[in-house]
């Protein structure tokens, strides 16, 4: 299946606003890939399909993940919406024929991050936060950083914004997010 066929299929599975977001993430991911010297085709595919599991209602995500024997943390049980990222890897394989491990890992980590994030993983995480349809207080600052700073500097700001948002909502901070942020900071100190 080529990317045009994937787009057509995805458009039939998602609500129009979610599909538009996926196209925005795809285009933003390609621009970031150019800027940070990452494979643009992989960035396009991961950006397009990052939310492919959002075809399921939030109430169905845990059940769909269990059917596929995916690992579910206590935080995922508390906030089932987080499962759309790892479930997305299964859907990308099953419905879109994607088997590239780099693309699948980028889809899996686009929501909470994780240890050992590749530059592709970081680009998809960031593209999801700054694509043109996103509207929140700090998005313009993050877009400006993405255009002017190195990728790890931008990621620290992205993680900081995400953690602050989660804290304000009173939710538990996912340990994968903390691990990703800490890893970048520790690697800078070496």
State the main characteristics.
190 residues; mainly alpha; Hypothetical protein af1432
Structure report:
The protein is 71% helix and 0% strand. It is an all-alpha fold. The chain has eleven helices and no strands. The model has no long low-confidence stretch (mean pLDDT 96). It starts with a helix and ends with a helix. The longest helix has 21 residues, at 16-36. The protein has a single domain (3-189), classed as Orthogonal Bundle (Hypothetical protein af1432), CATH 1.10.3210.10. It is globular. Helix 8 (119-130) crosses helix 10 (151-169). The chain has helices at 3-13, 16-36, 40-49, 58-67, 74-78, 84-96, 101-108, 119-130, 139-148, 151-169, 175-189.
Q: Can you describe this structure in just a few lines?
A:
This protein is mainly α and 190 residues long. Helices cover 71% and strands 0% of the residues.
CATH architecture: Orthogonal Bundle
Q: Mind summarizing the main beta sheet?
A: none
> Would you report the number of β strands?
0
Q: Can you tell me the residue ranges where pLDDT is under 50 for at least 5 consecutive residues?
A: none
Radius of gyration: 16 Å
Number of separate helices: 11
Query: What is the straight-line distance between the termini?
Result: 43 Å
Number of domains: 1
> In CATH's first tier, which class applies?
Mainly Alpha
Remind me, CATH topology? Hypothetical protein af1432
Order of helices and strands: HHHHHHHHHHH
The helix content is over 70%
CATH homology superfamily: Hypothetical protein af1432
Give the strand content: under 5%
Inertia-based shape: globular
Q: What class do helices, strands and sheet pairing give? A: mainly alpha
Mean pLDDT: 96
